[in-house]
Structures are given as C-alpha cells and as structure tokens.
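User: what does the whole thing look like in 3D?
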Amino acid sequence: DTGVSQDPRHKITKRGQNVTFRCDPISEHNRLYWYRQTLGQGPEFLTYFQNEAQLEKSRLLSDRFSAERPKGSFSTLEIQRTEQGDSAMYLCASSSQRLNQETQYFGPGTRLLVL
Amino acid sequence: AQKITQTQPGMFVQEKEAVTLDCTYDTSDPSYGLFWYKQPSSGEMIFLIYQGSYDQQNATEGRYSLNFQKARKSANLVISASQLGDSAMYFCAMRETGNTGKLIFGQGTTLQVKP
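Assistant: Here's the predicted 3D structure for the full assembly of 230 residues, as structure tokens:
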C-alpha cells in the first residue's frame, strides 16, 4: 500500500481562476476527509465522505468550493473563482471505519498560492 | 464545544535528550480519541500515537509515549532520545464527537533539536 496521494503538490494560480485537486486514499479506507491549513495554524476540517456520500461540510466551505468522491474511490476538491484568501495547504486524509482507532492517514497536501 | 490547546509555540531540545510537548483538551463526551501528528517542513502530517479515553495504560510507540492524565484533561507527548530528524511541527488532535470522526487540531508546537 502506497498511502494517501494528492495531486498536484503545488499550484499557483491567478485570482478568479478555477482549480481542482485530487486525492487518492488508501484503498481499503471508506472514509475520506479534506482539511485546510494556513500558515502557522493547525488543519481545519472542510468536508467528509463516507464511501461516495458527502455527509458533512464545514461552514468554511463556501459556495465556491465543491467536492466529490465518485464511486467511493478518489476525491476531487474544486475551488471556483479563487481568491487570495484561498491560499493554503489542502490536506486529504483517509481512515477505515472498521478499525478501532479510526486513525486518519494524511497525504502530502497540495499547496495553493493565489496571486 | 471541543477544543485542543497547545501552549508551547516553540521548543528546543538537545539531541539525545527527552522532551515533553504539552496538550490539553476540553470535551464533555466520555468517549473520545486523542492523536499526535508530526509535520515536517515538507508538509505531510505523519501519525505518531493514539490514546483512547477508556485506555487504561498510556500509549507508547517506540520513542514516543503519551502522558495521559484524564482528570486534568491533558495528553502530553514525550519524545525520548531526541534525534535531529525530530525537528518538525507537532500537532495534538481530538476526534470530534459524532459520526464523522473529523479531527480538531491544536495550534501546534515547533520542535527544534540541537546537535
């Protein structure tokens, strides 16, 4: 197992452009999470999937943000009309509900810079 | 509301010595899970150790141990025999009550190991 992967690792975009990030979780994990981390802060929860169903979204997730997890496998996070305040590290994590601890394992993150 | 507090923004430790990183938490739920993650400058969140609220013994994983004091609501991470590679940001997190399993993170502590 290669762990959680994310693509791209870095993204620089101009304000107003749309961006899409991809996350591939650990294959047997049914739970998938997106977090956002700004400089010097801990990660903050954005949204959660159980299999293909998006079961919770944070109020941090404005209408410009949308996430999907088709077929309960990989997930995408899209930001439309990016703003400078969207600059952050976007972290994806996965876990298995079947395991007692339900430890979340994180990917390497996508660093977004909006100019 | 659940909350994690890490009061040490930065810590220094001499190589080969032990260091304790503080974490206090607040929750009214009797069942909860506490996690420590390491985040090197590369950005990836690396799982270190887990403590469940009903666990009778303090968790240990190699050079990492968790000093769990339930009555004081503290879950301090102890790193023994510090190595230069331990220099990183360390986050304490709590799994939030409810069905999602999302994590609430503290502000983090930057640890620098001196040779």
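In plain terms: Chain B touches chain A at residues 4, 33, 35, 37, 42-47, 50, 52, 91, 93, 95, 99-108 (CB under 8 Å). DSSP finds no helices and twelve strands in chain B.
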